[in-house]
Amino acid sequence: MPPEAVDLRPTGEEAHLRALESLYDSAPINQLFRSKLVLPDAGRSEIRFAVSDESFHAAGAAHGTLYFKMLDDAAFYAANGLVSDRFLLTTAFNLHFTKPMRSGEARAEGRWISGKRRVFVAEARIVDSEGEECARGTGTFMRSHISLSSLDGYRTR
Question: Which CDD domains does the UniProt entry name for this protein (predicted)?
Answer without folding.
Answer: PaaI_thioesterase (cd03443)
